[in-house]
Structures are given as structure tokens and as C-alpha cells.
Amino acid sequence: MTDASAPARRLSPQAKTALGIFARYATIIGLLAMIAAFAILSPRAFPTLSNFTNVLNQASLTMIIAAGLTLAVVVGELDLSVGFAASLHGILVTGLIVSSGLPIPLAILIVLCAGALIGLVNGLIVTKIKVNSVIATLGVGTILTGLAFAYSAGVPIVSGVPETFLQLSLGRWLFGIPNNIVIMALVVGGLWVLVERSALGQEIQAVGGNPAAARLAGIDVDRIKILGFVISGVCAALTGILLASRLGSGTASAADSYLLTAFAAVFLGSATLRDGEFHILGTLIGALIIAFGFNGLNIFGAPTFSQYVLQGAILILAVGLSSLGRSIAES
Questions:
Q1: pTM score above 0.85
Q2: Which Pfam families match (predicted)?
Q3: How crowded is residue 160: how many other Cβ atoms within 10 Å of its Cβ?
Q4: Separation between Cα atoms, residue 68 and residue 231, nearest integer Å
């Protein structure tokens, strides 16, 4: 077998430096270049405050679910249940409000707790039963899909959704800024502080970097991994709630597509500013790249299939850049 970092070792120091800079800043340069290109090609529709606000608003749910997913990935695991969980939570919150008649705050609290519980189950399966996280979370996600269809009988919950609940996502309660953007900023900012500026965050990064060394340093590795899954579960629940509020309904598969989008943002973010490391700020930038790409395609009237092509291409590019950065860092 050949060493993946061997090509990097054969390069001159200048070439390694250039490649390192490219791997770290290519995504940011690409984002700025894409924005500039769309602005030039569509000067009236694209570079406007209303359009940029719309992009952030549309991307806010992706940012929330991807930020939570980042925590699971930072601790060295994958959570493939987030999209399916968000769909279930969207149905659950609308059902609790419409069918069970619960107050909106109580229904939201119950669903957020359900998200934490799903994350806890994922974490326990991975850490205590020692099931690979890909298999465990994919299995849990499939179960959640079945539960979503069972709860709704396959019929979207549409009628009877109160206007107050719709305004949770569609309203502008703070200085005319869409609520989803405000909530996203609070979630992403809070998780950034947790990971980058707290003692617990140092433990999270230590577990993701080297679990064996973290365990020798006295860190409860299983507890940290479970925490990563719980945070991922809560963010998936919040995404499902906000999506149901935005759509005005609960649908069994409404958030399934967020899985691929979230992973694309996370892996694209790992190729941003750091050498193949997963981090919250990078995920935010990755989500913006996807959002502006989709927005530009929509403005130019590109067919729907092109969005899936772009998303798949971005995911492949993201993993490639992340691998390149990690290879350079280790060489």
C-alpha cells in the first residue's frame, strides 16, 4: 500500500506552502468568486440586501442542523439520522399542537427533549454497544422514518396549524430580521463558544483528535461522544420545528434532504481555514457556499436537477479538499 501523504512529501517546501494555503482558503475564495460572478451576471436581482437576507433565511435551517452535526463529527462519529429525525420532529410538533391541543411552547419543549433523547440513544448504541456510528444512526434514522409515517398515517398535518406557530419561522420580531436568522445566529454562536472557548470544548476536540490520549488524560470519552450526539439530536429537532413552522405543516419526509446538505456543509467546512479539521465556523461557510449556489441557480432559472448535481459535486469537492489539507498537515 502507498502512503496517502507520500505525494505531499515529494513536493518542495514552497509547493507544500502553496498547497496548504489553497486547501485552507480555496472555499472562501470560491464563495467570494461565486458571489462576484452572480452579481456581475445578474446585477439587478442578485446583489441586493433583500436577496442576501433571503439566502440567509433559506440557509438558516441548514446551518442549524449542520452545526449540530458538526459536534458529532468533531468527536469522531457520524450521525446519519439527523434528516429523518428532523422530519419526525416536524410532524410531532404539529401533531401535538393541532391534534393534542398542547400550548405551542410546551409542544416545542417536548419535541426538543425528544431530539435529545434520540441523540442519547444514538450515543449509547455507539459507545456502550459498540455499533459503528454509520450503521447505528442509519438504523435509528430508518426507525424514525417508520415512526413518522405511523404517527401521521402518511398524511401531512396541514389544517388547524395556528398562525402563532407559523410566525415562529416566518415572523420578524427583532429589528425586522427574519426569526430563523436570529435563531440560527444564537445556535451557531453558542456552539462556537462551546467548542472553541470553553473547557468542555477542549475535551470535545481532544476526544475527536485522539480518543486514546484523551482517555489517558482522564476525559470520559463516552460521555463526550454521547454529548455530541445529544447536541446533534437537539439541533435536528429544532430544524424540524422551524421547517414545520415555515411550511405550515408536518410531512413525513419534509427534512430528509437536509442530511446530504448538512454533510456537504460540514465537510466543506473542514476544508476551510484549518487543515482538514471540522469546526463550526467552517460549517457556516460551507452552508453559505451551498446556499448562494442554489440561489444563483434559481435566479438564472436552472432546472431542479442541477441543484442535486451541484450538491453532490460540492460534497465530493469538500471531501477532496479536506483530505488534501489533512495530507499536507501530516506530511
A1: yes
A2: BPD_transp_2
A3: 10
A4: 6
